[in-house]
Amino acid sequence: MNRVNYLVLGLLVGPSMHTNASDSAPLRVHSQSPISSFLLSVSPMPTQFQPGWQVAVDVHGASIFAMDAEYELDYYQMEYGVEAFYSPSPRWRFGTGLRLLRTDDAHLDQITLTFHDLFGIDQNGRDQVPKHRFYAAVPATGLLVTDFQRRTLAQKYQFSGAYQWRQSPRHRLSSTVTMQYNNAQGQWRKGGSVDGAVQLDYGYQRSGGDQAWLMLALSYTDASAVLSQSVRQWLPHLGLGYRHHYTPRHSVVFQYQLGMGPMTSLGSFKEPVHEFFVGYRYRRTGYQLDLTVLENAKNPDNSADFGLAARFSYRFH
Fold it and tell me: What is the pTM assigned to this prediction?
């Protein structure tokens, strides 16, 4: 192979091996468990910071269908977010954001039924009830809410600070502290309004440009109850992910998140929440688009059956 061929190969392959701070970030997706949505829901965070400002908007849409001897939940859950981050140096990163949890009609029932049929996943009774319901019942507490579409269930204001402990060509380590004020009221959430979390994120970069990451986190809530049932104040979390770059601008992401069951009682909500995310990322200089599919695993009655998320971020230069 002559020099010209090597040059052409370098132009084609070399850029796909290059990553920057935003491109190496995990998927910014949150648990869509109906209980976790009323608490501070953590997700893997970046381990590499690029000085300057970054803004992002996102939307999560989930089809909640959870039936247990102790409860029945069937509704759409939409979460809209806007965030801003500022890094004064490669070591520090500060962020603020607002998230709205609403019950807008996402028309995801038929998509969920089709998705489950396509991959051989049990419908768990979803095909035996009318589509597009908004229904929540916990008979033991007398809780019954119907026809609550197009309502804002919670407004969540978040503030975070992160510090990078290690930076090397292959290994990165950072920690993040997050505080959240949650104004959800009524039967959805009772008690205090302040939540917090501390997490440790490790990132590993392969020589070919792919990345892997690990998150360990512990969250705290000042809430006393959700759906009129008591919640655990301290919850551990685990996150794992891997990104494969197949062109300079395109990559595919696989991410798994595990959280301790947030309730002290109430059937399956006492059990761990397992969620898998498969995402596609498109990146150009300055901006980035993530599209993600969510599927609950192992326990169909403590998180969303199916969900979609989209996130657009822009970095100022």
Answer: 0.87
Higher pLDDT, 233 or 129: 233
Through-space distance between the first and last CA atoms of the chain, rounded to whole angstroms: 39
Cross-strand bridge partners of residue 238:
216, 258
Beta bridge partners of 274: 258, 297
Residue labelled with tokens 């806007």: 82
Number of residues written out for the chain: 317
Strand pairing of 135-138 and 92-102? unpaired
Helix and strand numbers (H, E) in the chain are 2, 15
For residue 183, the SS3 value is coil
Q: Taking CA 279 as the corner, what is the angle to CA 14 and CA 16, rounded to the nearest 5 degrees?
A: 0
Task: Tell me if residue 148 falls in helix, strand or coil.
Answer: coil
Q: How confident is the model at residue 3 (pLDDT cuts 50, 70, 90)?
A: very low
Instruction: List alpha helices for 138-230, DSSP H.
Output: none
Q: Which helix (H) or strand (E) holds 88?
A: strand 71-89
Alpha-helical (H) ranges within 139-293 are: none
Q: Which residues contact 149 (CB under 8 A, 6 or more apart)?
A: 75, 76, 103, 104, 105, 134
With b for 16 or more beta-carbon neighbours within 10 A and e for fewer, the 152-165 pattern comes to ebbebebebebebe
The residue ranges of every structural domain in the chain are 3-315
What does pLDDT average to over the chain? 87
The C-alpha atoms of residue 211 and residue 46 are separated, in whole angstroms, by 11
| CATH class of the domain defined by 3-315 | mainly beta
Q: What angle do CA 3, 8, 10 make, to 5 degrees?
A: 90
CB 48 within 8 A of CB 63: no
